[in-house]
Amino acid sequence: xxxxxxxxxxxxxxxxxxxxxxxxxxxxxxxxxxxxxxxxxxxxxxxxxxxxxxxxxxxxxxxxxxxxxxxxxxxxxxxxxxxxxxxxxxxxxxxxxxxxxxxxxxxxxxxxxxxxxxxxxxxxxxxxxxxxxxxxxxxxxxxxxxxxxxxxxxxxxxxxxxxxxxxxxxxxxxxxxxxxxxxxxxxxxxxxxxxxxxxxxxxxxxxxxxxxxxxxxxxxxxxxxxxxxxxxxxxxxxxxxxxxxxxxxxxxxxxxxxxxxxxxxxxxxxxxxxxxxxxxxxxxxxxxxxxxxxxxxxxxxxxxxxxxxxxxxxxxxx
Length: 318
Ligand code: XIL
What we know:
Layout: H1 2-8, E1 13-18, H2 20-25, H3 27-36, E2 39-42, H4 48-51, H5 61-72, E3 76-84, H6 90-93, H7 100-121, E4 127-132, H8 147-152, H9 156-167, E5 172-177, H10 185-199, E6 204-209, E7 212-213, H11 216-219, H12 223-235, E8 239-247, H13 253-268, E9 273-278, E10 303-304, E11 307-308, H14 310-317
Parallel strand pairs: 1-2, 1-9, 2-3, 3-4, 4-5, 5-6, 6-8, 7-8, 8-9
Antiparallel strand pairs: 10-11
This protein binds (3S,4R)-3-hydroxy-2-oxopiperidin-4-yl beta-D-xylopyranoside.
Catalytic activity: Endohydrolysis of (1->4)-beta-D-xylosidic linkages in xylans
GO molecular function: endo-1,4-beta-xylanase activity
Organism: Arthrobacter echini
């Protein structure tokens, strides 16, 4: 895929989310991965809960090992993620924010986290989600009132962005969100947040549109709506990454393949869209687990049991 894309857009990156385990230990999987992708996003390894289990304590081993693999295979790395409500260690979630003095102390701890992590990875990340899923769940348009919000107020994305820039001025910064793939209030809010962050001294290059399609019947991403979306962000001077696209197969593998291909090709044909990432590669290592934590095997990715699916073929043609 990456080689096909590079013929027309040498800078365009096609990536996938991955964990260290399968990439380092399953040779067939590694071959599938490297044979098709030019970039990776650590699926979990760079989330705060994994990087800093206790305040002031950092566990970089897994993320570093993943970076070593990426570099040995010449894959660009997209960092994921700094401020993310869902993936914080408890020390971070529980930082006090009741009084002015508490907020000051907690601010120092949070900035220290940003600086330590971004300095550690400096020079090795092409891009980074500085804020992930800022808005209230279920299509909300207000900022989640997480610890970043409680300590820094509604300008926290600008605070984080400036701290990231100080530690690594070259990493391309993104705000990543789900449910903002097509025009609507949630997308308006994301566009506004990115612009406002920059108006307050932030360094946001663009937005990540996650592109999870959980139900093709209700939340398929139509080409026209995505085209309009990309034009909107382009007009606002922002870049777009399709950052976590995956598509359920409940409507059949042909419809699923068409959706994968449509999202990739619409992105690829828009100069504002700089990369496309799929969230998972092979059903054997997918992130879909049911309520009992059992792996769901029916959810198709671009490979199934090591073999390319119709989705991958359609993406190659697209
Ligand atoms: C998911 C991972 O894929 C899972 O392995 C983990 O258990 C939970 O998080 N949006 C995001 C990603 O931004 O960080 C999430 O990743 C998927 C949804």
